[in-house]
Amino acid sequence: MKPESSRVVWQGLSWRLRVETVILPDGSPLERGAIEHPGAVVMVPLQSSNGSFEVLMLRQYRHVVDEVILELPAGTRGWDEDWQACAQRELREETGYRAQTLTSLGRIWPAPGISNEVMALYLATELSLDPLAADLDEELQVQPMPLAELIAMAQDGRLQDAKSTIGILRAAVYLNNGV
Amino acid sequence: MKPESSRVVWQGLSWRLRVETVILPDGSPLERGAIEHPGAVVMVPLQSSNGSFEVLMLRQYRHVVDEVILELPAGTRGWDEDWQACAQRELREETGYRAQTLTSLGRIWPAPGISNEVMALYLATELSLDPLAADLDEELQVQPMPLAELIAMAQDGRLQDAKSTIGILRAAVYLNNGV
Predict the structure, then answer these.
(1) If contacts are CB pairs under 8 Å, which of residues 46-75 in chain A contact chain B?
(2) What is the pLDDT of residue A177?
(3) Predicted pLDDT of residue B177
(4) How large is the average pLDDT for residues A93-104?
(5) CA-to-CA distance for B52 and B123, rounded, in angstroms?
(6) How far apart are CA B120 and CA B105, in angstroms?
């Protein structure tokens, strides 16, 4: 179904809402919303601690769900920003670390029924301190956690954030960590 | 940061966009969008075929990303609809089957930076034919696929839809299928 008409009803700092009107097979009109999004990056920052792997997770207040949630560092890309540069910038802003190596863990659509957002996932390794000032509207804390515990949480549902669940499980597969 | 003001800028058939204005720590105002969503269900419809497991996947045209994507059956809940009733209804509409048993595989937030949508995941087993008329705006085809192949696709990134990736991997863990 091709849209009969289309308009942007809101333009935010990083994404906008477009509303299209389509004509259904029975002739009636339907308004449907579509978020136009520049994409985002998700990082799995990995370091060794006493011989086992640890991931730098975040506890971040998300006003949309009104909860502090456990998630991987992530952030929205600028419309023209290079994906790897975006991953490095967000990693430095949110964790204070730079990664010597970023390894792709693939891409996902978080919500293709509503938004064209693509998330690019990266394993971030060989970390060194190199902080960048964080965004003013973010409220977060870094929390290092054992990879093995995060794998269990991704599998049994304690990890509720979709991008983080997939990032952890793909990292585990990449590292051959028993998944 | 508490919002200074808040308004609904668009109300669709199943979700709406609210825009809030907050004052940043430096005193400047920021508009931020938040999708208010009734939640959704995601099903992993499983059946045996020649002694191995098969999942009823969909190939569905998603106008938002302008692609036919491979995904699990899923659908938006009515604001007051019971979650299991919603899962059964969407399964019948999209695959033509009813499940004798729906087993929870947990809940996820697909995009908690933008939307308060919660997705409830279910393993759907003991399937029997019992179709319901599909929504007029949906363009989809049922495609049965081996569970083992879907697990590999979820792990290596060929499966790009987030809810489907997590549904398949959680089902595999539940069934002890080598994940």
Answers:
(1) 62-66, 69, 71, 74
(2) 55
(3) 55
(4) 97
(5) 16
(6) 8
